[in-house]
Design goal:
- By secondary structure, the protein is an alpha/beta fold.
- The chain folds into three domains: 43-245, 2-enoyl-CoA Hydratase, Chain A, domain 1 (Alpha-Beta Complex), CATH 3.90.226.10; 253-391, no CATH class; 396-474, Nucleic acid-binding proteins (OB fold (Dihydrolipoamide Acetyltransferase, E2P), Beta Barrel).
- The chain is built from 17 helices and 18 strands.
- It has helices at residues 3-24, 30-35, 56-71, 88-99, 116-122, 150-167, 174-182, 206-209, 229-237, 253-261, 263-278, 285-303, 310-327, 334-351, 364-391, 396-400, 404-407, and strands at residues 43-51, 76-83, 104-114, 126-129, 134-136, 188-190, 193-196, 203-205, 212-213, 218-219, 224-225, 242-245, 411-412, 425-430, 435-440, 443-449, 459-466, 469-474.
- The strands form four sheets. Strands 1, 2, 3, 4, 5, 8, 11 and 12 form an eight-stranded mixed beta sheet that branches. It has a five-stranded mixed beta barrel with strand order 14-15-16-18-17. The chain has a two-stranded antiparallel sheet with strand order 6-7.
- Strand 17 and strand 18 form a beta hairpin.
- The N and C termini lie far apart (107 Å).
Length: 479
């Protein structure tokens, strides 16, 4: 039997077996296909803890968590709250941050949402309670526990109530309940039932918050009482229909709060040390110190919920452009200028409260504080450089800051040399664009030209001196 005959015989046998198997297999009813369970679609949930006294660390945690939720398309954020209250200004910032989140925002009172905590909870769509949960007692007081002066108190209370009315416009009783927690003179009454008489502040337990009033009956404030967050999510979405996404809470929010206060100084001193490193041969303590301080600056802004990875990448790109100017394209100016702009822009970017997903409303106020900090930091760096140039004039430290290795030999600054060098001729050993090195009588000096640039090998004459070296001009005819 030929190969072709064997091939056709095998094909016919395979075909016969296939037809037999199909004929013997039962038909699948379309109704059975429809009855098969579909893949479970899980709702992504972030749980953000709001614990302890309301202060900057809570703001940092909330802001960072909400921004991550927006970037990762998280559908629901739950504040796991247990706080005795805290700073009103931070409370307002947290309320504004919650308003930027378009997904479902809820609070689980576990176990206290007192004072500022009640306002933050009221800014979310739903308020759930642990069995022992409590909310209220929201009068504005000073950090020392004393009463706020009358006029200031009335202004703050009015502003807080207005915020709650805007954020809780769809809630039937919430605005009045929060006012009763804030204003002792306000009587909270639903129909003929007086819930809170004038003369005291309202604090609700979980069961009181779930008490129904009106027609049709509706809970006063709460959306449900659950033993824990797991029970809450099962009741809302069903077992297996939700997924809690990891939101990494670091131990360093308090540390970031402290560092954020000194962010401009960290930035300025770091830039100063990097400048000194560029003036120093090799790589040493100035570079390590500058990189460390700049890194701490970016880390503190990240923990504060401000900076992401992008400003850090742009800052590194700026440093690389400046290094390219120094090492490969001396005198072109373009690389150094672009690098400086990128570095300054990244530092500013790291301090601006940008929100992902087009949630940021650009305004002068958004950039005002960061711009002031940036100017302060740059002024500190430049002022420090000028101060060091005067304090260290002629010292051993100043001689160490000269780029001997780059120039190829020993050097001295104009300020450290004899005034008799005025009028002397020399030769350019590194291009002056406008600063570089010249060699005069066998000694190399830092020098710069007053106008334009001077190429390598040109003959120059010393016409003056500055804190950073000699001022020279090109001589076309040395004779």
């Amino acid at each position: 039997m030929s190969f072709l005959q064997r091939y056709w015989l095998s094909w016919l046998l395979w075909s016969a077996l296939t037809v037999t198997a199909v004929a013997q297999s039962p038909l699948v009813d379309s109704s059975e296909i429809d009855a098969r369970p579909a893949a479970i679609e899980k709702v992504a949930v972030y749980v953000i803890p709001i614990e302890g006294m309301i202060g900057k660390p809570n703001l940092y945690i909330l802001r960072r968590g909400l921004k991550e939720a927006i970037r990762n398309d998280i559908e629901m954020v739950i504040l796991d709250m247990d706080t005795p209250g805290g700073r009103v200004d931070v409370c307002l910032e947290m309320m504004e941050a919650l308003d930027r989140f378009d997904g479902i925002a809820a609070t689980y009172v576990n176990e206290d949402a007192i004072s500022a905590g009640s306002f933050i909870a009221a800014s979310t769509e739903s308020i759930y309670f642990a069995p022992r949960g409590k909310i209220g007692a929201s009068a504005v007081i000073q950090g020392t526990g004393e009463d706020v002066p009358e006029t200031a108190r009335l202004k703050m209370e009015s502003y807080l109530r207005a915020n709650i009315r805007v954020m809780a416009a769809e809630e039937r009783y919430r605005a009045d309940v929060i006012r009763a927690m804030l204003d002792a003179d306000f009587e909270l009454k639903v129909g003929e039932t007086v819930i809170k008489p004038a003369g005291e502040l309202l604090t609700l337990t979980a069961s009181e918050a779930m008490q129904e009033y009106g027609e049709p009956p509706e809970p006063l404030l709460g959306a449900g009482i659950y033993a824990d967050l797991e029970a809450l999510l099962v009741a809302k979405f069903g077992a297996g229909h939700y997924e809690i996404k990891d939101f990494q809470i670091t131990y360093s929010e308090e540390w970031a709060k402290w560092l954020n206060t000194f962010a401009p100084a960290l930035m300025g001193i770091g830039m100063l040390l990097l400048f000194l490193e560029f003036k120093t041969p090799g790589f040493g303590i100035f570079g390590i110190g500058g990189i460390t301080l700049i890194a701490i600056f970016f880390i503190s802004q990240y923990i504060a919920g401000l900076a992401g990875n992008e400003p850090i990448l742009f800052f590194i790109l700026g440093v690389l452009l400046i290094l390219a100017e120094i090492l490969f394209f001396a005198g072109t100016i373009v690389f150094a200028a672009s690098g400086l702009l990128l570095m300054a822009g990244s530092l500013l970017w790291a301090m601006v409260d940008f929100w992902p997903g087009g949630k940021t409303e650009l305004s002068a106020e958004l950039f005002l504080g960061p711009m002031v900090n940036l100017i302060f930091g740059l002024a500190l760096a430049m002022g420090g450089a000028l101060l060091l140039s005067r304090v260290l004039k002629g010292s051993w430290m100043e001689r160490q800051l000269v780029l001997d290795e780059v120039a190829g030999g020993p050097a001295a600054t104009g300020s450290a040399a004899k005034p008799a060098l005025l009028g002397h001729l020399g030769r350019v050993v590194t291009p002056l664009h406008p600063a570089g090195r010249v060699e005069i009588d066998g000694v190399r000096y830092e020098a710069s030209c007053a106008v334009g640039s001077i190429d390598l090998g040109a003959t120059v004459r010393v016409v003056g001196a500055s804190d950073f070296g000699w001022i020279v001009e090109e001589v076309t005819d040395p004779c």
